[in-house]
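Our preliminary data section would be incomplete without showing what the modeling component actually yields. Below, a chain of 119 amino acids is followed by its predicted structure, encoded as tokens that our downstream tools consume directly.
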Amino acid sequence: MTEASARPAPLVRAALLGRCPRCGSGPLFIRGLEVREECPQCGLDLRAHDAGDGPAVAGIFLVGAIAVIAALMIDSRFQPPLWVHALLWPALVLPLTLLVMRLAKAALVGLHYRQRSGA
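Predicted structure:
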């Protein structure tokens, strides 16, 4: 499949599943948040499609706002001791931040591919 004749994979599906933005079947990530250098299925050079700092910003703004609002609501309603907050919020915020960053990175790589390929 050549890059000129390839129709890009559906963006939302590719981002949610962490797949290649061109073929939609090759895995985008090696582990965690590290983008592969090349798609093993279609051979797309993924090094040329950079997400920059967007995923970190999405993680900070989205998860941070949700966590602060939830912490204030729980504290005002239930008034738990401080140690409950110290255990609860890192256990919820860290995995959620990684998930948001992974989704945002996959979406931004997909958007970058579409913009550069003219799709």
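The radius of gyration is 18 Å. The helical segments are 11-17, 54-78, 82-117. Preliminary results of this kind motivate Aim 1 of the renewal.
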